[in-house]
Amino acid sequence: MTYIGIDVHKRQSQVAVVEDDGSTQRESRVDNAELGEFVAEYEDAQAVIEATSNYYAIYDALEQHLEVSVAHPTKLAWIAKSRQKTYEADASKLAELLRLDAVPESYVPPEEIRECRALARGRKKLVEKRTDAKNEVHAILDQNGIRIDSPFTDEGREQLAALEVEGSDQVMLEQWLGTIDDLDARIKDVDREIVEMSKSISDVDLLMTIPGVASYSGLMIYGEIGEIERFDRAKELVSYAGLDPTVRESADSRTEGPISKEGSEYLRHTLVQCANIAVHNCDDPYLSEFYERLRRRGKPHQVAIVATARKLLVSIFHILTKEEVYDPPPVRE
Asked: Model-level pTM?
C-alpha cells in the first residue's frame, strides 16, 4: 500500500509519498489545480489532507482517484510544535500517520450540507459587517456629541438624514449609512434564498417546530451538525458543539469548568441565540423553567443560558434521530 500526505496551502501543496515499509518514495511541491492529475498514478493509494479553508475542492478532486481522509487540524497541533516546522516535514508526518492508521479524522459533509453551511455562514458574516458599519455611525455620533437613542429605526434614520456634522465626518456618515442600506438589501436577498432552501429539507422543518428556531437558525443548526447518524448519543453531539464542560480530575476530586468551546462556533452561537429567544420571547415552559431554576440557584445569566442551549441541543438530537417534532416532557409543578 502507498500512503500520500498532502499539506495544503493557498495555491500549492507539499506532497509526500510513503511506502508500506515507511520509506519515502517521493516529495514534491504541486499546484493545487494539478493535484488530481498528480495522484492519478497512485490509484490504489490512500491519501490524507488537513482540513483547511479550501479543502473541499481539493478533497473532491482527489476522491475521484483514491481513498481520501481529512485530518482534524486541532488534533494535529503536534505538527506546529515540531522542531522541523517545514512543508516537507508536515506532509511526510501526515503520510506516516496514515500508514499507522492514526489519523484523527475530520467530518467531510456532503454537497447539500456544504451548501447549507455556506449560505447560513455567509448571512452571519453579512450581519457582522452591518454591525461594524453601525458601530462606525455610533462612533461619529459620539465624536460630535450627538445622542440618538435608536438611530437605525425608521424614526432614527429620519433624524440621521437631517443631521449636518462638520467636514469629513459628514462624508463618512453618509458612506456608512449607504453601506448599511446596501447590506440590508443583500441580507434580505440571502434570507429569501434561505427560506427557499429550508423548504426542501425535512430536518429543518422539524427544527422549526422548536420555539425560537426559524428558517435561518434551523438551516444553520442543520448545516453545522451535518448527518445526525454520525452521532450515537446526545453527549457526542454536545461535545461536537463545544458545549460540554471541561473537567479536571485528580485522585480524590472531580471539578467541572467552563465549556470546552472546541466545536463549531457557528453552531454554539446559534444555539445560545435560540435558547435566549425561547426563554425570553417565546416563553417555552420546558427551557424557561430550566433556565429560571438555574438563575434561582444564583447562576449568572451567561452560565444559565449556555446550559439551556446545551439542553436544547439534547432535544435537537432526539428530534433529528427520531424524526419527530419538538415535544418536550411537561414541566412538573
From this structure: 0.87
CB 302 within 8 A of CB 308: no
d(CA 209, CA 202): 11
- What is the SS3 assignment for 208? coil
194 contacts 215 by C-beta, under 8 angstroms: yes
Residue 202 corresponds to which cell in the numbers above? 425535512
Query: Quick count: other Cβ atoms within 10 Å of Cβ 167?
Result: 7
- Alpha carbons 274 and 34: distance in angstroms, whole number: 44
| Torsion sign over Cα 139, 141, 147, 150 | negative
Cα(137)–Cα(139) distance, rounded to whole angstroms? Answer: 5
Burial class (CB in 10 A: 0-12, 13-18, 19+), 36: middle
Q: Which three cell numbers stand for residue 254?
A: 472531580
Residues 6+ positions from 144 with CB-CB distance below 8 Å: 165, 166, 169
Residue with cell 440571502: 190
| The dihedral sign for the CA sequence 144, 145, 148, 152 | positive
Cell of 256: 467541572
Q: CA separation (Å) from 3 to 66, 90, 162, 274?
A: 10, 14, 68, 44
**pLDDT, one tens digit for every residue, the chain (333 residues):** 899 999 988 889 999 999 998 888 889 899 999 998 998 889 889 999 988 877 898 999 999 889 999 988 777 765 545 544 454 558 888 998 899 888 888 889 999 999 999 999 999 999 999 999 999 999 999 999 999 999 999 999 999 999 989 899 999 999 999 999 999 999 999 999 999 999 999 999 999 999 999 999 999 999 999 999 999 999 999 999 999 887 665 555 556 668 888 888 999 999 999 999 999 998 789 999 999 999 999 999 999 999 999 999 999 999 999 999 999 988 765
Contact (CB, 8 A) for 54 and 11: no
Angle between helices 111-143 and 168-199 (to 10 degrees): 160
Residue 11: helix, strand or coil by DSSP? Answer: coil
